């Protein structure tokens, strides 16, 4: 169904949807999480947040990420990631900057298209590539602190004016039917209802025009996607996470890859093979061309 309230793709600046009841925008440089006692830099993600932090979630977010009404980020790492996006978005951004996508993935994406919708855009690892490939990019991102970082990056980028950053979720995209040439998500979509699921995939396909492409980059549930008619592409070659410095590699490994931290220390370099970190490298995508 077309959503009549959907903003036009060409609008210069998106009207932000109703913002969460979290008070007025803080002054520049005073992010909401700066009021919180920072976790020890090295405290691992699974131990970083407690149930006391769940209050950062808006009711809309809580309905998706806490479907039973409660949860404990120390027992639910997916919930811990959601708290990271809201409480320490810069820490996430340091990790995402190190985990660069295989250049084959970006090269594979259509170029010179008119409209691209990205869902779960985060701090813009992919968005910053998409502005060179489409005239109009809409980056949908539910976490307000992530949107703020992405807007800041776009404002400093040559073609940043091509992208608009809007609030939204996989299961309710604020875009009209058949309106994008490419609908894409990077490291964001999962089969779980709160992070996409059947409804989210149907929404991405609704927004994609006939003959256009829906692409899920760095998927971790390939079987589920192939069962939904998606095809798999993988780009070969060795891949390493490229941390800003050796110290950065050690600190981020302690938070995100605690089991690999000793090996990262031993390697003594800022370049750490993904196998050492124990995760699949960002070399895969799944895609479906919408029936014309
Ligand atoms: C691992 S981050 C990936 C961010 C970015 N795409 C990147 O590659 O760095 C996952 C992102 O998905 C967003 N996300 C989580 N649940 C979502 C949902 N239901 N709808 C849309 N985005 C969601 C998060 O806020 C977060 O920004």
Helices and strands in order:
Layout (H helix, E strand, L loop, with lengths): L44 H4 L10 H7 L11 H11 L1 H10 L4 H6 L4 E7 L7 H4 L3 E7 L3 H12 L7 E4 L13 E7 L10 H11 E10 L4 H6 L3 E4 L5 E3 L3 H11 L4 H7 L3 E3 H4 L6 E6 L3
The structure holds S-adenosylmethionine.
Task: Describe it.
- With 292 residues, the protein is α/β, with parallel strands linked by helices.
- It is built from twelve helices and nine strands.
- The chain has a seven-stranded mixed beta sheet with strand order 3-2-1-4-5-9-6. A two-stranded antiparallel sheet has the order 7-8.
- Helix 3 crosses helix 4 and helix 10 runs antiparallel to helix 11.
- The longest helix is centred in the middle third of the chain and has 12 residues.
- It starts with 44 loop residues before the first helix and ends with a strand.
- The N terminus is likely disordered.
- The protein binds S-adenosylmethionine.
Features:
292 residues; 17% strand; 7-stranded mixed beta sheet; two-stranded antiparallel sheet; alpha/beta; 32% helix; binds S-adenosylmethionine
Write a brief structural summary.
The protein is α/β, with parallel strands linked by helices and 292 residues long. The chain has helices spanning 45-48, 59-65, 77-87, 89-98, 103-108, 127-130, 144-155, 197-207, 222-227, 246-256, 261-267, 274-277; strands spanning 113-119, 134-140, 163-166, 180-186, 208-217, 231-234, 240-242, 271-273, 284-289. Bound molecules: S-adenosylmethionine.
- The quaternary structure here is single chain
Work out the strand percent: 15-25%
> What coarse outline follows from CA principal-axis ratios?
globular
Number of helical segments with 4 or more residues: 12
Low-confidence stretches: 1-6, 17-35
Rg from C-alpha positions? 19 Å
Instruction: Indicate the mean pLDDT.
Output: 91
Write the H/E string, N to C.
HHHHHEHEHEEHEHEEHHEHE
Distance between the termini: 18 Å
The total count of strands amounts to 9
- Unique bound compounds: S-adenosylmethionine
Main beta sheet strand tally, sense and closure: 7 strands, mixed
Question: Roughly what percent helix?
Answer: 25-40%
Strand order of the largest sheet: 3-2-1-4-5-9-6
Counting helices, strands and paired strands, the structural category is alpha/beta
